[in-house]
Amino acid sequence: MPLCLVRIDDRLIHGQVVLGWARALKPDRIVVANDRVAESPWERRVYTSSVPGHVKVSFFGLEETARELLNNLFKNEAVMMLFETAKDVRAVVEKGVSFEEVNVGGIHYRTGAEELLPYVFLTDDDRADLRELVKRNVKLSAQDIPGNPPRIINALVV
Amino acid sequence: MVNAILVTHGDLAAELMRTARSVFGEYDGCQAVNNEGKTPQTLADEIERLIAAGPPGARYIVFVDFFGGSCCHACLTVEQARDDVRIVAGVNLPMLLAFLYKREEVTFEQLPDELIARGRNSIRRVSADDF
Predict the structure, then answer these.
(1) What pTM, to 2 d.p., does this model score?
(2) What is the CATH number of the domain that holds B64?
(3) Would you state the torsion angle of the CA atoms of residues A41, A42, A43, A47, taken in this order, to the nearest 10 degrees?
(4) What's the whole-number mean pLDDT along residues A68-84?
(5) How far is Cα B61 from Cα B103, in angstroms, rounded to an integer?
(6) A98, A111, B29, B70: least CB-packed within 10 angstroms?
(7) Structurally, how many domains does chain B consist of?
(8) Residues of chain B whose C-beta is under 8 A from some C-beta in A?
(9) pLDDT exceeds cutoff 60 at B105
């Protein structure tokens, strides 16, 4: 599966993704990798409704996401993959998947989180999960929209 | 009484409310929510808190700025669990003004369609040749 973007964004599919990233990268398919959404027909319909018709949308639980990636399914499609949390990316990576680069696009404020960037607030747990990715040589590129410059944050989470 | 909560990207909601005052005059029962720095869950919790703190029995039109955005998703989570909330996406100034003028004139059930009609009616190509 050629991945044109692997993104952490707690909003999953929303304006920045559809109007910003999908316009710039023209994926054939958006994959939402999330256990809760994969099990919720209602959430799946809500998210699908905001994607233009020519882009396919799939919803996988994390287990299935890892399996699809390891089996190289969708190898003929450009895929944009969205995760809700760093923890979910870590879970997939720990199942043997490797990502070269992960876009950190939105981890917003929750109790106990500290601001790193206006759209990145990290708890100790988030940091631990991101550190685990850094340990596996994943480049963490913070960038909300394609028009803004990316910022490599590997050194800021260790 | 029908109240409104405007949930938008950035300060758009607060600015729409402020600007509406310059046309309508003072009003109450409307609140602005800015999505910046908030997760969909934080946003949904904030809307729930505003409703809980509002007058008992009030019903709500929740305006969002764009269909399919994160504000819209957060509001859907709130609406799904309640029968006193209707969501209208694509809020613009004429729509908000129509809400202020019409909220006591038409029923809660009719209100969303009225507002959508007013909002749509204000979106058109305009040329001096038309006049």
Answers:
(1) 0.86
(2) 3.40.50.510
(3) 100
(4) 92
(5) 10
(6) A111
(7) 1
(8) 9, 36-40, 42, 66-70, 72-73, 76, 80
(9) yes
